[in-house]
Amino acid sequence: MQIQLLKGKIHRATVTQAELDYVGSITLDKTIMEAAGIREYELVHIVNINNGARFETYVIAAEDEKGIVCLNGAAARMVQKNDKIIIMAYCMVDEKEAHTHQPKVVLMGEHNEVEKISSYEKHGKLI
């Protein structure tokens, strides 16, 4: 049997732009994507910490180390510049793999710099 588990998470990224007149997606700094193991065009789930909105879209890569987190198209209506968001990607694993699977959890700093990378979360803490 296959189950879906968290693969990568970007925690508390700051929205730098919201571009309504764009085809759609979220544009992310390539460095942040790589830290979380998220690929370009991969489906991601997004949670807006400021307003509670939850939605999904796909990722487009931006330049490295610029801190870009830009919601595009319809997703731009779900955020405002400077909102804090959580970006999550999932993977399918078989039950045997599930026992050893570890996600990449990326804790973001105030200016969208990677502050810490972990492979384990405990309630309220990264370990």
TrEMBL record:
Q: What keyword terms does UniProt attach to this protein?
A: Autocatalytic cleavage, Cytoplasm, Decarboxylase, Lyase, Pantothenate biosynthesis, Pyruvate, Schiff base, Zymogen
Q: Which residues carry this modification: Pyruvic acid (Ser)?
A: S25
Any Pfam family the entry gives: Asp_decarbox
Organism domain of life: Bacteria
Q: EC?
A: 4.1.1.11
Question: Family assignment?
Answer: Belongs to the PanD family.
Question: Mind telling me what this protein is named?
Answer: Aspartate 1-decarboxylase
